Amino acid sequence: MPKVSPLFLFLIILHFSCKEVDKKQPANSLNLSPVIHLQDTSGFDPNWSKSNTIVSHLNAEPDNLHPSNGGSSPRSEILIQTQAFLLITDFENQTIAPGLVTALPTISSDGLSLSYTLREDPQWDNGERLTVQDVIFTAKAQKCELTNNPSVKAYWKNIQTILPDDKDPQKFTMIMKENNIQNMSFVTSFCIMQRSFHDPDNILNKYSFEQLDDSNFHAENEKELLQWAQNFNDDKYGRTPEYLNGLGPYKVSNWETGQSVTLIKKKNHWTSNSSESRLSALPDKIIYKVNKDENSVQLEFKTQTLDVSTNLSMGTFTALASNPAVSTNYHHVLSLTYNYTFLCFNEKPESPKRQKLFTDKQVRRAFALLTPVENLTRVVYKEYSTFCKRMISNVSPLKPEFNSSLDAIKLDIDSAAKLLHEAGWRDTDADGILDKQIDGSVIPFKVELAYLNSSPDWKDMAMLISESYAKAGIKTDLLPVDLRVFLEKARQHDFDMILGSWGGTPFPEDFTQLWHSKSWLNNGSNYSGFGNAESDALIDSIKTEINSVSRRGMIMRFQEMIYDDQPYVFLFCSMRRNLIHKRFGNISVFADRPGLLLNTFRLLSTTAE
Questions:
Q1: Neighbours of 15 (CB within 10 A)
Q2: Each residue of 231-284: pLDDT tens digit?
């Protein structure tokens, strides 16, 4: 999910002391600060590798590395290294900083015009300088209805036009249609693309922003535009190294499907001559290695084959943290995140293979009462479960907008059974499974629960959920899938229930992507189908309300609407399990995604090879 933050750099007061951020923290297994600085290890063990290569563990490979079309967390993490952005997230201070521009934008009094100045030094790999035309192309490519990026189109829709400055070729103004708390911050999530690389015939230049916004403009009837889009959407631009182009300091040298993605540092990157350049200190190579097998992952850390992971199951994390040899070589830190785990219902089944199981909110509330959230938390976090925050609504309890008046829904099988009975679900054939007549046919309550096959934590949770549902006469078919299949099923509404997680940030959120009904209609990230005219209007008001007090009241009401409708069973705030080799220093752990910035790591050996 794209990162979100406010228009005027309104800073959230976190639930933690700012003084904690400045302290150097020793490596330990639990630290509840939003920013943790680890102490560099004193002395370099002669048995440690002196290679300036980081091997980072992934439990799922990215869906792709396309600069526009994709949505997985591994993809976002890798794009930080290979791409560049107009504005970037300042993880240290949890705010926004200039990226490809010289400063934060100058904003007009009405908040609708944001004026930027591009830096003069950024160059593409072929030697071309970054230009305003690249920025304009990026916006048009993202807005074009033929581009395969449905989950993020809502963020680009608010751009009315981008105007180059008549006097200075480095300057441009982004004109927005309406005030929005993300009119500035949304660009931190989207990389700038090279026009000449992705559109050598300059096809998009023939079409105005107005045309791309016009509902009566049929892009599919424009032969040139259709051909451009078909090429732009081609999988090679998201998977084949020679077609992966970006302004970042690293490039993809190799992608072994299902195994690893290897990045190498560019020798002549445009930051090399910059006064603030730290390119020479960057790791020479970053290898993202995919390993889903828990025993194999443990072995790779015990043999120091892997350097880093933020993706360990809790069982593996605790096993490795308690191993004396591993503790000698690795920092182990359990840290906060703004991410949360959830169960999602398909409220609007479209596929003929999907029954109308969850169209009734009374049934959805019954399933919330059947879900053993506290037990799930203990299964995942074990002895650390008491530090894990319970999710009650769609807003993290770590944020000031959280509606504390809402009560957590506790496990209550008897009350759930009563609600299901009232909704017409009974065991009429005495087979132990509830059934109901729907559209003239008797349908047994058999629900398919899809979950990621990337970690045993997901499997353990799914099995516990299934056991609890069985006590009320629900048959649950468990379906483990890889990330690409999971996202495809979710976006195409081809599921009954899914068990997943969303990433979050400390900044105020635009709820359009996850909760607006149009994000269901266009196969975006509103997987459940939640929403009506009232909730859509409230979302639209929230994202345009700059006054924090007024906006907070709206968000409180929005949480009440979601709580009442029960499109999800909200489970818990995820905690990140970090393991980092001590041969690297300058390590900070952030609550914000991706948790670690690998390109800031410094090999401690002075004789790196």
A1: 14
A2: 999 999 999 999 999 999 999 999 999 999 999 999 989 987 665 556 667 899
What is the rounded CA–CA span in Å between residue 59 and residue 310?
10
Token pair 């105005």: residue: 208
CATH architecture of 18-27+37-59+242-335+580-586+596-603: 3-Layer(aba) Sandwich (3.40)
* R_g of the chain, CA atoms, integer Å: 25
**Under a CB-based contact definition with an 8 Å cutoff, are residues 475 and 427 in contact?**
no
256's CB contacts (< 8 A; 6+ apart) are none
H or E segment at 476?
strand 475-481
Backbone angles phi, psi at 25, to 5 degrees: -105, 135
Cα(265)–Cα(286) distance, integer angstroms: 8
**Cross-strand partners of 576:** 335
Q: What is the DSSP letter of 443?
A: E
Under DSSP, is residue 269 helix (H, G, I), strand (E, B) or coil? coil
- DSSP letter assigned to residue 346: -
pTM reported for the whole predicted model = 0.78
Residue 245 DSSP symbol: -
Closest to 254 (Cα-Cα) out of 242, 270, 246: 242
Distance CA 452, CA 59 (A): 10
CATH of 73-233, one of 3.90.76.10, 3.60.15.10, 1.10.3210.10, 3.40.50.2300: 3.90.76.10
CB-based contacts of 411: which residues, under 8 Å, 6+ apart?
369, 370, 371, 372, 373, 374, 375, 468
What would the two tokens of residue 385 be?
A: 């479960």
Residues 6+ apart with CB under 8 A from 129: 120, 122, 123
Minimal CA–CA distance to 340: which of 418, 397, 270? Answer: 397
